[in-house]
Amino acid sequence: MYRSSVIPPLRLVFLMWLAYTLQMYSGVDLGFLGVNPRTLSGLIGVITAPLIHGSLQHLVSNTFPVLFLGATLYLFYDRIAPQVFFQCYLLTNLLVWIFGRPYYHIGASGLVYALAGFLISFGIFRRRFRAIFISLVILLLYGGMIYGILPQDSYISWESHLLGFIVGVGSAFGMSRIRRVAN
């Protein structure tokens, strides 16, 4: 069961590492594949931005949360996990394209914040013991991320963090209203 829950986030992480490797060996900065708000060319980033990272540290700092939070989502909420993952991935980047500052936004941290936002708030909305327990564990492990929502460093896309978290909470609210959801 756990092994299969890791497969979807592992595929994404593989693509993230592949893109970074291609970037390093080719010498081509793939930052142009990020979300560039309100530009036609920047729409490609809605799909590609989470795959592009500016440094090895940036890549590693997104790898483990994507794996852990993604696997947690697929392990405990397998019925809704594909839809939630898809919403968190695409809606976050689409909102960054609409509302973000006019520069290239890259990396998977928006997805990380969306997944954390979903896992933390789903238990609150669902009001089932297991879901609340999962929410508390994720809150204990990732609660400090809340500081990343605030603008601190002009080179970090706090918009991705904030909008990702909002998408995650919104997805949790929507999914909690569906009757046939796993605990």
TrEMBL record:
Peptidase S54 rhomboid domain residues: 44-176
Residue ranges of the TM segments: 12-35, 55-77, 84-100, 106-125, 132-150, 156-175
Keyword terms: Hydrolase, Membrane, Protease, Transmembrane, Transmembrane helix
GO MF annotation terms: serine-type endopeptidase activity
Claim: Membrane is one of the keywords in the record: yes
Pfam families xrefs: Rhomboid
Alphabetical GO biological process terms: proteolysis
Keyword tRNA processing: no
Record membrane topology: Multi-pass membrane protein
Superkingdom field: Bacteria
GO cellular component: membrane
Localization: Membrane
Protein's recorded name: Membrane associated rhomboid family serine protease
